[in-house]
Task: structure prediction
Amino acid sequence: MEWLGAEEWQAVALSLRVSFWATLVAMPFAVLTAFALARWEFAGKQLFNGLVHLPLILPPVVTGYLLLLTFGTQGPVGGLLQELGIVLAFRWTGAALAAAIMGFPLMVRAIRLSIEAVDPKLEQAAATLGASRPWVFATVTLPLILPGVIAGSILGFAKAMGEFGATITFVSNIPGQTQTLPSAVYAFLQTPGGEAAAARLVMISIAIAMGALLLSEFLARRAARRIGDG
Amino acid sequence: MLSVSLQHSRPGFALDVAFDAPPGITVLFGRSGSGKTTVVNAVAGLLRPAQGRISLNGRDLCDTDQGLWLPPNRRRIGYVFQEGRLFPHLTVRQNLLFGNWFAPKAAPRADLDQIVEMLGIGHLLKRRPGGLSGGEKQRIAIGRALLSAPEMILADEPLAALDEARKAEILPYFERLRDESGIPILYVSHSASEVARLATTVVVLQDGKTTRQGPAAEILSDPKVMPTGVRSVGAVLETRLKAHHPDGLSELDAGGLSLFLPRVAQAPGQMVRVRISAHEVILSRGKPEGLSALNILPGQVDQIHSGEGPGAMVSLRTPAGRILVRITQRSAQALGLEEGSDCYAVIKSVAIAPGDISKISGS
Result:
């Protein structure tokens, strides 16, 4: 792409990579969390629910700072990971972690709604037909909540693409390393003469967001058609 | 054979039942709220009883004393639910084969083509359940349960959500299951006419307790058994179809007496079960003459059971079997009825509904 500078292109590619992995890795946890919140009764459920939603209501900078405290090389978890050779702070993987945590509550909410819409009687029927719990989940529950999972993924992906505050606090704004699309827009706007580059990135950002939305509509509609009208 | 004994309670309701379900259809008969569904769910493994033991063909499914409880997927019991419960995201064919896929490889399998043919659902295989009628869904639910290679079938009021025409459409499939599959069936119902048509064995459930159990004809002819109200009481006669007459009537042999009914569907020589509603029978002390009714059966009063209302249930012993007659207590007094009185039961041919006539298994 001639009209996009190397730095800009890097930012777009990095953002796509960060968002993709953030969504993919967070998804199974989001489904499990949504399932627990929708179906299980356990002590401390309200506290757990609050914890899951915390990134949604905390200032992103605070979330980023907490991540830095926890997953930074001096932090309790970060220090442990470092001994295993995994460093998150100031790396693109850290950006992915920040994006995943910020998008997590959105994914959980979308998936939880779809799980609550599944009639447990269908799952009982599957059990009487010989399906064990994991099989019931795989053959009945999961296909039925697929539209919710798709919607949750797109929401999570879009959130990851736009995540700025937590990311810049946790992994900073290193071109080629941790400079995602929003941080690049911000950086260009801080540089004299950077408006044109910023405008190009903004357009790309809009295009990706629209594309993701249309894709999710298409997939959700296809999944809904498969489920039929009951 | 299924053996059940269990106690369970929840606020405002206590269940304490014990019964055996031999081969054929065992109907759990009782009004709504008597605990029928709770029992069936415990057998299926969808409900864990507080106390009890359930075994199927010598295999323990639940034994609370030993802390044994098999989850539903390991019980090999097909369940036909009231509302079908088909999987909306799968085609009819995938629904039918769902349980088949999980069945043990060594289990004797029902053949898909054969089941599809028996239930008449071949034209629906590629469709999804969404647009199907209630009757179609229920036939698929029956097929799905059968194809899971079950050792037993449970059916919880499988006809209750259907209108009369659809009920008439599904009932014969259960009769065929009873007569052809050899799989024991536990069937929940509050409909006396379904019981009379399908049951090999009846287990009466009242307020969470099994009050009576035994062969269908015996239980249904007992004047004290009326779990779903007095209007639904009716004795069952087991008869042999003698001949179809050209005037549209069929002649049945009932213990040497002839019973004339509007043309029945069975062939001469077959055993036919006829349910006679107690409130459709008239009682006469002398042999009536000049009556339009074709069926006049002589008998002796065997029991008079007076309830709280103005009515009385009279059980009459006739050569055809026991007949129940619902009359008023005033009539019983006026006729001077007591145990041993000679009487005639008068039954109009056309008063017997086609749904109350059915063939008996094994004939």
User: Anything to note?
Assistant: The longest strand of chain B covers residues 295-306. Residues 61 and 70 of chain B are 5 Å apart (CA to CA). The first helix of chain B runs from residue 36 to 44.
